[in-house]
Amino acid sequence: MVHISRRTVLTSALAAGAGAALGPRLATAHAAQGVPTLVPAGHGPVDLHWLEGGSPAALAAGTTWGVPWPRGAFAPDQQLALTTAAGDPVPVQTWPTGWWPDGSVKWTAHAVSADAPRAESYRLAAGRPSAPGKRLTVRETPGEIVVDTGTVQVVFARNGSQVVRAIRRGGQDVARNGRLVVSRQDVPDTDRGGSVRHESFAGAVDRVTVEQSGPVRAVVKVEGRHRKGQRAWLPFVLRFYLYAGSDGVRVVHTFVFDGDENRDFITGIGVTFSVPMRGASYDRHVRFAGADGGVLSEAVRSVTGLRRDPGAAVRAAQVEGRALPDPATWDQRVTSRLHWVPEWGDYSLSQLTAHGFEIRKRTGPGHSWIRVDGGTRAAGLGYVGTPSGGLAFGMRDFWQLHPTELEVTGAATDEAEATVWLWSPRAEAMDLRFYHDGLGQDSYPEQLDALEITYEDYEPEFGTPYGVARTTELMFWALAATPTADRFTELAAASATPPLLVTGPGHVHSAGVFGSWAPADRSTPARAAIEDNLDRMHAYYVDQVDQRSWYGFWDHGDVMHEYDGDRHQWRYDVGGYAWDNSELSTDLWLWYHYLRTGDATAFRLAEAMTRHTGEVDQYHLGTWKGLGTRHGVMHWGDSAKQVRISNASYRRFYYFLTADERVGDTLHELVDSDRTFLVLDPGRKINGGGPFDPDPSALGVGQTTDWGALAGAWLTEWERNGDPIARTKLLNGARSIAALPNHWVQGSVRYDLADGTFTTPAGPSVSIGSLSSVFGLIEVMTELIDLVDEPEVEAAWVEFCRLYNGTAAEQVAATGASWGSLNLRQSYSRATAYAAARLDDPALARRAWTEFRTGHAGYPAGHSFETVRVEPPLVLNAVDEGRFSTNASAQYGLAAIQCLALVGEELS
Question: What is the CATH number of domain 508-906?
C-alpha cells in the first residue's frame, strides 16, 4: 500500500477571495506571517469541453466557469490564454476565486462571450489572453450605469422603480422600463369566503454596484425592496451578466420572504419590460418555445388563413417573421379589408404544473381569452417584436419551477409589455402557512412524544418561512430582428440549460481539491462492482425526481428522505421523513459523484440541489439567519434549526466550479453563523426548556456536528480571502479540540464566540453520537489537515477515525471509556480508511473494507441496487421502486468514494 502524504490525494483549500484585486492583500498577510515568497512552479495546458458535449449553437449571453490548480502552480496575477483545440485564440477574462495558504492561486474563474469562436473543446494555458473584437465598457455617472457590450447598451438606474431604463441596439430602444412587480392578497384562494384585498408592489432600487467591468464580462448587482406606500418588503438582489459582443443579458433574481404567511399570499412575482412596437400590426410577431423544440409563431394581425389570400410571398414572409411586402402588391381584396381582421395584442403561456402548459390570447383587456394550444413542458422562452428588432425573454427551469408564465400584453399598441412571471397570477395564491394546527403539542414533553411517531420535531411558531429565499435565472436577448424558428429554438435551449465549460475529472483530481476522491475506476472486478452500484443508485434518484414530480417553486432541487413500501410512495406527508433538506450530506454525495464521473446529468442534479438547499432550506433574514431547517413535510417546517443544514460544505463545490456570485453570497452569510447559538438553544427540549441565558464565552456548541458545519464556512471564507476571523476561528477550533482530554469525543465542552476556542470545565469524559461526523466533518478535516502543519490536530483526528469503529477495549484504552453501541458503521468505514492511509496500516485498511461490506445502517454486500416496475392500479403512475433510503444512499456513496480513493489497493 502506498502512503498518502498530506500534500497529495487529500489536498484541498483554504485562503481566497472573489477577484484579482484581493491578491495583494493575501500577499501582504503572508509576508506578515513569515510565509516564504511564492516561486510558481507552473502548469501545463488544461483541456476543456462543454458539459453536455458537442458545441452548443447558442450561449446564455456567455459562460463562466472555474478551474482548479495544484498548490504552488501559479501566482494570483498569472495570465491565462484560451484557444480552441485547433489553436484559434478565444478572448477570455480570468480572475482568481480561491487561494492556497502559500499564496498560490487555487481556483480561477473564466468568462467567454457568445460572440467568441465556438468549438467542441478548448485549451487553457499560461499566456497572454486575446482581446475581444468588441470590447465591453462600463460608464458610471451619479444617476445611472451604462454597460456597452459593443452590440447592445444596457442603462441601469441607480434608484427608483426602474431597474433597467433601456436596452438599446443600433441606436434605438429594444426594451425599456425594466422593473419588478409583485402582487399579494390577504386571504388564500383555498379559504376565500368574504372580501379579498389585493395590492400591487413595485421593486424599488436601493443600491447598484458594478462587481465586474470587463473586458469580456460585466456584472451589475442591484439591491432593493418591493414597495407600495409605507410598506417595503420582499428584499431582492438582482445580478445582470453582460458579455462582450453579445446581445444577451443573463439575470439572476433572488428574493427573500419577509412577510406574514398568515396574511401575505403572493399572487404574482414578475420581471417586466416595455417593448416599443414599430410598424404595422401585421409585422409584429410573438413567439413561444414549447416542448421538444417546438415553436409557436404568430403575428398580432395575421394575414394567413383568411377567406381571401394576400399572396404566397406575403404569407411566407409573415410566418418566417420577415417584413411583409408593400400592401399595394397584395391581393387588394385583403388589403382593403385589413381593418376587419382582429389584432391579437395579448398572449400568455402558463405552466401551472410540471406536466402541462397552455397558450391563450386575446384582442385586449375587457375581452375573453381564447385557447391557442398546449403541451407538456415548455422550454420557457418568449419573444415580442418586429422585423426591425424585439425582445426574447425567458426563464431557466421554467416547468420545473412552476407555476410560471410568459406574458405579452399591448402588442397592438405602441408599446408592448413582456413579463416573465416567476409565480404566475393565473395560479392559486402562494400559501406558506404551516400544514397542521399543532395537534395539541403545546409542551416539550408532548412534542418529544410526537417525535417518536411521525419523526417531526414540531414547536409552535417555528414553522415559519420568514427569511427563506428563492433564486431564479432569467434570460433576455435584444434581437436585431424576429428570429427564425431554428434560431429561436437555439436560444430556448441556451436559456433552459445554459452551456457550461468544464475540465475533466482527471485534472480536477490532480489539482488536489475537495479532499479524498478519485476518478471512477473499473480496473478490477471488485472496483467495477462498486462503481456499478454507485451508478445505479445515482440513476435511481435522477429517475425518481421525474417519476415523483419533485418539482415546483419551493421544492425543485430537493429529494425525499424515506420510502413507504406499503403505499409505494415516498413519505411526503409523514413528519420528518419527507423532504431531505441535506440530511446526512446528500449534497456532498451528489457533488462527489459528479467530480469523479464528469457526468452532465450528475452536475445538473447537484446544481439544482445547491440552488434549493442554499436558499429555501436556509434562513437569510431574521433571528435565525444563518441556520437551516431539519428535514420535514415543509422545507422550513421543522423546529430544529441547525447549522448542519445551512452547511457551507454543501455549496462550495458549485461556487468554485461556476464562480456563481449568488452562491458566494450565501457562503459569506455563514461566516458568523456561530452567533446563532446566542439566540436559540439547540438542546431546549432535552434540558427542559429552562431560562436561556447564553454566555458568549461558554456556548453549548458541539465540537463535531456543529463545529464541522461552522468549519466548512470558515474554510471557504479563508480560501476566498475573505474575513480574517474565519482563519482564526477555524485554526483555533481545531487546535483547541485537539487539546481537549478526549478531543472530538470529549464531553462537557464550552465554546468561546470571540475566538472560536473550545474548553472543558471537567476532566476526561466521553460523549459521542453517530451523527457526529456525517454532516461534512470528515470531509472538512480531510482538507484542513492537508492544508496546515498541525501534528497535534492530525494525531487527534486520526485517533478519532481509528476508534469510531474500533473495539470497546481500544476505546477504553485511549479515552477511558467505551463509546457505546454506535450507529452508521458503514458510513464511518471511510474514517477507518482515512486512519489507515495516514498510519500506513494495511490491516486497518482491510478493516475498513470489512466495515463497508458489512453495511451496518447502510447497504451491505449483496444489497440489490436494481429496481422493479410498479404499474397502475397499484400506483397512480408507473414508477420504479428500489430498496433505497436517502440517508443510506448518501452515506454509502460517500463511504464508497472515499474508501476507493484512500485504500482501494486493499479491495479484493
Answer: 1.50.10.10
